[in-house]
UniProtKB/TrEMBL annotation:
Family membership: Belongs to the flavin monoamine oxidase family.
Gene3D superfamilies: FAD/NAD(P)-binding domain (3.50.50.60)
Domain of life of the source: Bacteria
Source taxonomy: Bacteria, Bacillati, Actinomycetota, Actinomycetes, Mycobacteriales
Residues spanning the signal sequence: none
Domain Amine oxidase residue range list: 12-431
InterPro entries: Amino_oxidase, FAD/NAD-bd_sf, Flavin_MAO
Name recorded for this polypeptide: FAD-dependent oxidoreductase
GO function terms (MF aspect): oxidoreductase activity
Length: 435
C-alpha cells in the first residue's frame, strides 16, 4: 500500500499501532514529544534498582499484554509477600497480617462490586446496559454514584469505610468522592467479579526486564526510528487525509493520523476543524486523575503494606524492591501537589504515617499530572464520565483517529493492556479505511 500514516506518541498504543500499520505495508512515521519512548510506562534506574515510574503490574488474564509478553519472550515475577500490614482508621494505626486486612475490607469491597455481573456480562462491551431497557436508567444512575454512595445504605463500620477510601484513593489515583463507581464494578467484571482477582491483576506481578523490555522490543521491530523530542502543535484533518504540524513549523502530509495523546495533554494540540463538542467537553473536564506514585527507600529489609484514608498524602503503600541493605517501597496518593517526590523529608513523613521507626534514605518518582505531555496519571472517570466520555473518541468522521488506554474497552487507563488493545484496534480500523 502506497499510503502514509503519522502516529502521534510513542507509548505502547502508538508503538503497537505503528507495528500493525507497518505490517500492512503502510509507510508509518512516529513522532514523540518526549526524549524517550514508552509514554507513561517508564522503567528507569534509580536508587540502585530499575524502577517503574509509571505502569508496573501485568497479569496473564490481561490478554493483550500477555500476547506481547509471549511475543518478546519476557518473564514475570510476583510482588513480595507482606509480613506486616498497617492501616489507619480513626487516627489510629492498626497492625495485622495482609490476610486479616483483606478480611476487614472484603465486605465493603463486595458491596462496591455489587451489580458487576448484571451491568457487565461482557466487560469489553462496557455500555451494553444502555441497550437494555431494564438496566439503562439504573446504569446511568450508577454512573453518578461513588464508592461511598454504595456504602451509605449499609451498616459499615468506620474502619470499613476508611479501608475503602484508602483503596480507591489509590485505584482512582484521584479523589474517590468524585469517581464513578462504574469503574470499580467494571474492574470486578474484568476479574471474574472477585476482590482477590482484582488485587492480583492490578498489584500482583511485574516483568523480569521491566516495561522497557516490552516497549523497546516493539520499537525494535519498527523499520523507521521514532522521531523523539518532536511535539505536535496542530492537526488539520479531512475525510481524505491529514496534515500534522510539528513544533517549529514542519508539516507532514499523510493519509491518516493516529493520536495517542492522553486527555490531560490533548489541549497542547490544535485541531482543524476543532474536536466535536462531546470530545471537547472531556478534554476540558479531564479525568479524575490528580494523584502521584512515589518510590521511597528505607534502611533494612521490611515487607510491609500500608493503607490510609483521605486526607493522608499517601493512601496505599507496599514493599516492592529489595537491595543489599534497603527496601524500596511504592506508594500512591490522590493529590500530586501533596507530595514532593524527590524530597527524602517528604518520604519520611509518608512512612511515619504507619512506621515512625523506619529511616528514609531517598525517594523519587515522576509527576505525571504536572507533565505537559500527559497531564494525568491513568484515566479514571469522574461521576457521569463512564457513560459520556471515552466512546466519543471512537469516530471523528475524518482521517483523524484516537488510540491509547484512555479509550480502551477493557483495562482503560490503569493497565498497559488497554493501550495495547487500542493500538491494535485503531490500526486495523485505519488499514481497512485506507484499503
Amino acid at each position: 500500500m502506497s499510503r502514509k500514516v503519522v502516529v502521534v506518541g510513542a507509548g505502547f498504543a502508538g508503538l503497537v499501532a505503528a507495528r500493525e500499520l507497518q505490517s500492512a505495508g503502510i509507510d508509518v512515521e512516529v513522532v514523540e514529544a518526549r526524549d524517550r519512548i514508552g509514554g507513561r510506562a517508564w522503567t528507569d534506574d534509580r536508587m540502585g534498582a530499575p524502577l517503574e515510574l509509571g505502569a508496573t503490574w501485568v497479569h496473564w488474564h490481561q490478554p493483550h499484554i500477555w500476547a506481547e509478553i509471549t511475543r518478546y519472550n519476557q518473564g514475570i515475577y510476583a510482588s513480595p509477600d507482606v509480613d506486616d500490614a498497617y492501616w489507619l482508621s480513626g487516627g489510629t494505626v492498626h497492625r495485622g497480617t495482609e490476610e486479616e486486612l483483606d478480611r476487614r475490607r472484603e465486605r465493603a469491597m463486595d458491596r462496591v462490586y455489587e451489580g458487576s455481573r448484571r451491568f457487565f456480562p461482557n466487560p469489553y462491551n462496557q455500555l451494553s446496559a444502555l441497550d437494555d431497557p431494564a438496566l439503562r436508567e439504573e446504569f446511568l444512575a450508577a454512573d453518578q454514584r461513588t464508592v461511598f454512595d454504595e456504602l451509605a445504605d449499609g451498616d459499615f463500620s468506620q474502619e470499613e469505610i476508611d479501608l475503602t477510601d484508602a483503596y480507591w484513593s489509590g485505584g482512582f489515583i484521584g479523589e474517590p468522592r468524585q469517581g464513578s463507581v462504574l469503574m470499580a464494578k467494571q474492574w470486578a467484571a474484568l476479574c471474574d467479579h472477585n476482590m482477590a482477582a482484582v488485587d492480583a491483576q492490578t498489584l500482583g506481578f511485574k516483568l523480569d526486564n521491566g516495561m522497557r523490555g516490552l516497549y523497546e522490543g516493539v520499537a525494535g521491530d519498527l523499520e523507521k526510528p521514532v522521531r523523539l523530542s518532536t511535539p505536535v502543535t496542530g492537526i488539520a484533518h479531512t475525510t481524505t487525509g491529514a496534515v500534522v504540524t510539528l513544533d517549529g513549523g514542519e508539516e507532514i502530509s499523510c493519509d491518516a493520523v493516529v493520536v495517542t495523546v492522553p486527555v490531560g495533554a490533548l489541549g497542547t494540540v490544535s485541531f482543524d476543524p476543532p474536536l466535536p463538542a462531546p470530545m471537547a467537553k472531556v478534554v476540558a473536564e479531564k479525568w479524575n486523575s490528580t494523584g502521584a506514585k512515589i518510590w521511597i527507600k528505607v534502611k533494612g529489609h521490611h515487607r510491609i503494606l500500608g493503607m490510609a484514608p483521605q486526607p493522608y498524602p499517601v493512601n496505599m503503600l507496599r514493599s516492592e524492591v529489595f537491595t543489599d541493605d534497603a527496601t524500596i517501597i511504592v506508594g500512591f496518593g490522590s493529590y500530586h501537589d501533596r507530595l514532593d517526590l524527590d524530597d527524602p523529608a517528604c518520604g519520611q513523613r509518608v512512612i511515619d504515617q504507619w512506621r515512625d521507626d523506619l529511616e528514609v534514605i531517598d525517594c523519587t518518582g515522576h509527576d505525571w499530572v504536572a507533565d505537559r505531555w500527559s497531564g494525568q496519571a491513568w484515566a479514571t472517570p469522574r461521576t457521569g464520565q463512564f457513560t459520556d466520555s471515552w466512546h466519543h473518541f471512537r469516530d471523528t468522521g475524518t482521517r483523524l483517529h484516537f488510540a491509547g488506554s484512555d479509550w480502551a474497552n477493557g483495562w482503560r487507563g490503569v493497565c498497559v493492556d488497554g493501550a495495547l488493545e487500542m493500538g491494535v484496534t485503531t490500526a486495523r480500523t485505519v488499514i481497512r479505511e485506507l484499503a
